[in-house]
Amino acid sequence: MSNMFAKLQFYMVYPFVRYALAVGILIALCSSLLGVTLVLKRFSFIGDGLSHVAFGAMAIATILKVANVTLFIMPVTIIAAILLLRTGQNTKIKGDAAIAMLSVGALAVGYLFMNVFSVSANISGDVCSTLFGSTSILTLTKGEVVLCIVMSVLVVAFFCVFYNRIFAVTFDENFTRATGKNASFYNLLIAVITAVIIVLAMNLVGSLLITALLVFPALSAMRIMHSFKSVVIYSAVLSVLGASVGILMSILGSAPVGATIVVVDMVLFFVHYIMGICLRR
């Protein structure tokens, strides 16, 4: 145990480890806030659809050799979120069908472009690291960390300022409209913020594992908490804990960062699942 703490203390001296922890904690916090709303609205699968769009955008940005990939991916993913919300309201194309179309289509286009217009000798490695996360979280520049901090502050500020509106839209959209509030506008804001979180989380867990950050902490908190506010707060605590432990374990054990974080979140869910059963007896 002492060797592990000594090793951890040794690694914490390096800025890239501190950057990774800071970004991981911020992304986990933002994901947990919106994750509760998405789960309760039964729209959590939007994370998977938008993450595949982000993968396709990243593939195109790589081919075009865009200097700042994040600034290219973010507007594309936000536009996709808006289109997805609009299309999901179409009576001819239901929400789940729209997500499936967008998800599979973007994934196929991204993979096709990366193969046809290859700029790397290791296509399989590039695709795998993009889908499941890579060590890029440990090579963040100060500029990328600042961008993540700014976007995270905006997400948290949005959630705090519009908390009552988000609560109303989450549980009863019809009542929200009846009180004169524009429920469609707040749904649009939630979709846009979700897209921002997904783009930020790609470097952390990869595009295929992003949904885990949105879903697992929220589901874990719902097992033992019973009010919306308590679920949101406890979900944030669990998400930050899972990200911190996952990043530290991946550094100490030389394991994939994204997969390690998701496994930690899974363990926390099963622990809370058992706790929930015990509390109900």
TrEMBL record:
It holds the Pfam family ABC-3. One of its GO terms (biological process) is response to zinc ion. The chain crosses the membrane at residues 20-40, 52-85, 97-114, 145-166, 186-219, 231-252, 258-279. Its main location: membrane. It is found in: Cell membrane; Membrane. The keyword Iron-sulfur does not apply. Keywords: Membrane, Transmembrane, Transmembrane helix, Transport. Coiled coil: none annotated. GO terms for cellular component: ATP-binding cassette (ABC) transporter complex. Gene3D superfamilies: ABC transporter involved in vitamin B12 uptake, BtuC. It is a multi-pass membrane protein. Belongs to the ABC-3 integral membrane protein family. This is Zinc transport system permease protein. It comes from [Clostridium] polysaccharolyticum.
